[in-house]
Every structure is written in C-alpha cells, then in structure tokens.
Amino acid sequence: MLRALTMGLSRTNSHLKDEVEWMQNSSCVPAHRSWSSGWAAMAGAHHGLGMLLALLLPAAPTSLTGTTIRINSAALSYVSDVGKAPLQQALKVMVPPFLDQSGDVHLPIRIQILDVHVPHLDLKFIAGFGIHLMATANFTIKVFCIPEALELMMPVALTADARVAQGPIRTPVVSISSCSSNFSPASVLGDNNSTSPELLILVQKHIRAILSNKLCLYISNLVQGLNVHLGTLIGLSPVGPESQIRYSMVGEPIITGEYIALDVNADLFLLGQPITLTLDATPFVLPWPVGTRGTMATMGLSQQLFDCILLLLQKAGALNLDVTGELNSDDNPLNTSAMGQLIPEVTRQFPKPMPIVLKVHLGATPVVTFHTNNATLRLQPFVEVLAASSNSAFQSLFSLEVEVNLSLQLSVSKVKLRGTTSVLGDIRLAVAASNVGFIDVEQVHALVGTLFKKPLLAHLNALLGMGIALPSVVNLNYINPEVFVYEGYVVVSSGLFYQR
Q1: Beta partners for 62?
Q2: Which residues, other chains included, contact 202 with Cβ-Cβ below 8 Å and sequence gap of 6+?
Q3: CA neighbor of 150 nearest in space, from 116, 212, 213, 200
Q4: For the whole model, what pTM was predicted?
C-alpha cells in the first residue's frame, strides 16, 4: 500500500524565507497583476440597504490587468427581490411624541411605527456615478390619541443616489449623494376615529417632518455600515501552506448604464511577506453572451494569475511530496528487493529488504495552458529514489527527471475556484544521476512510473480541491456556476446568493 506525504508542511522556515527573498527579487513570468470583482452584502437585517448596494460592485468588461467581471440586469432584479425585507426592517425608525397644544393642558401624544411594507424596489445604474434607488414604502403608524388610539397608513416614495468610488484602503466606498422622500396623504385604518380633523392634520405633519429627516439619515448610516462590510474584500485567504492571497481595488470604478465595473489586484503572500509581481498579463475581451440566460456575474480569469499562484505553491513547497510503502505489506513494490530485480547493484548493496522512498520535488514552476475548451498542466518534478540503510539513514540510489502532462478540470464552489487533474499520455522519465550503476529506464519506468502516478494525482487533487478564493466579501456566494476555457483565459459565469 502506498501513501503520499506532503513535504510542504515540513519545510523549514529558513527554506521558505529563502524563497520569499527569491520571489521578492524576481518577477512572475508570465505574471498577473490583478483580478476584477465587485460585490458585497450587508450582514443582518439592519444592514438592509447595504446588502442592496453591495451586490452591485463588479469589475471592468475589458481587462488590461488580467481579469474582468460583468454584472448584468439579472443581478439588479435579484437584489430588488431579496432586498425588500431587510429594507423594511431598516426603515422602522423611532418617532418622538407629538405635543398637543389645542387645550389648556399640553398633552404628549405617543406615536409608534407598527410596520413598514416595501411593495416596490427598483435599482438602476447611473453612468459614471453609481446606483439609483427607487422604492415605495407603506408605513403603518399607531397614534395614541385620547380618548382612543388610531392607526394610519402613510405611503412614502423614496429615491437615493449612491456614488461608488475607491476608498483609501483600496476597497469600494459607497456614499449617498442625494436622498429624498415624497409623502402621499395618510389614510385612517378602521372606522373608530374620534380624533378631530385639525389634530389629525397636525399629527400627520409632525410624522412627515420626522420621517423626512430620519429616513435619509438612516439610509446614509446603512451605507456607512456597508463600507465596513466592503472592507472584508481585502481579507487574507489561504492558497496553501504558508501562502495567502488578498484582493484590493486598482483605480476608480467604470460605470455605465448597464453595469458597474472595477479592477481588483491580486496580492500574493509567502510567510506573511508580499510577493511583487510584474504586469504583463495578456489583455482579453470577455465574450458576450456567456453562460445561461439570466446570468448575474461573469468573471474572466487570465492564465497569468494561475501561473503566479502555481509559482507561489511551488516556492512554498506545497507541491512536494514523499511516496513511501509499507515494508511488511505483501503487495509493496517500494523496497530494495523489488528494485533489485531490475537493478542488480541494489541487491548487492542491500541484501536484506529495506524500504524505499520517492522524494518528489518540483524545482521547476508548473505551467498551465488554456486553449479553447481545454486546460492542461505540465509538471517537471525531480524524483530522488532513496533506500533506508541499517542505521536508519537514507542512501540515494538514483534520481530521475520526470515530465508529466495533466488535464485540468476547473469548477467553482461557493467563493472558491477548485481543480482536479488526470494524467494525459505517458509519464516521461530520464535518469539524472545514479549510485547503482547502469539503469534501464524502460524497466524502471514500469515500476517507478506506476508507483509515482497515483500518489501524485491524489496529492495534487487534494491541494487543488481546497480551492483558491475568488474576490468576494462575507456572506456572498456564487451559485449555479459554469466554467468555460478560452485561449489564454477562463470564464466563470454564475448567479449570486446572499446568505443572511
């Protein structure tokens, strides 16, 4: 029985620090500078308006920095539907008592908003600016008059314009530039109304004055809370052992009447140190249409980003592994006895069966290639074959230069891009060095190639299955994603789902 042991976790910090210095003094070739993204969502009902606006922060339709995202009208429709309930909750403001001065004694009349219903919510893009919000809300208000209380229904039309810009920490910042509320005449609910018409007019005037000030203030406060939520865009996400990725904005948003767009930079870290990458990603234009009808978000990811992430994993040692076998297992070919049948010198040096270890090290950076409907990954690992000696030390028998081509299948789950691999064609071996004399590569291939293949795939698929975080913020996931491979880049087309 074979087992693969990841060597990335066992590398010393000194080795990793050497790799950090190497990467900081070199460039990722080919390199990637940026991702594009843009959406966010408020957590909790009291962040209702924030959730509405947060889903509408995508990235540029044509990418010069490596990645592009497009948000279309289906996303606006989704936000309008799911945003009604949290917006209703947010609009339940406190109304102070009204002081009735009609009699000899001034009496305070308590006023309470019982319910807010938002039957209509519409969001539109404002070219060169941000988002326009239009909503109608029906306020059910209880007025504790004397001798009996009454309930009013007061319709309100709300409009607000929100500017979307780049903030000082390179995250999206939303601010309300204008806001207004237009009140229709209130109607009394029920037939038991003994309140004088004059007092009722004064009470309604008081309510409208309070709501006129508070509604826009509450909307502005919600947007300020949204900006804190949008800050989670720059949170670190793990790529592999000792390595992380972080996203941040590059420049101001691009806004048209059909979409909002922004570019987002992908910052890579090793041992907490940022890795400087050069900008030479090949520009591409996102095809249209892509995916199923009603797609909310379409993201294009350049080949150069994958190159740099694989470089980071390679330098962190996450792609290295040991392949060992159980010495007492009847079907274990990884021992000197089995190897000696192919290489007699091994039997002479190790007359008693001893375990063998394949140490797999990727000194060369993996190369990913995207062609239409086809993604491949080429690895060139260096494999050292070692045998345990009588004093428990390991002795090098020989080493191999290996080349293996893999098919790469990509998928998206929640906010992560995941991959699985399978071997394409045959694994190529060449002897790099030998301490056991002449080696017949074809004979060794039958043994080493077979034993190497299964653990390598298991190790790669486990690592790539962990996924690379895509640009997003908390509580927002991609749903029903489709992945398309084009020449030099990948397109992810999906819906959006806000998880309260």
Answers
A1: 285
A2: 98, 100
A3: 200
A4: 0.80
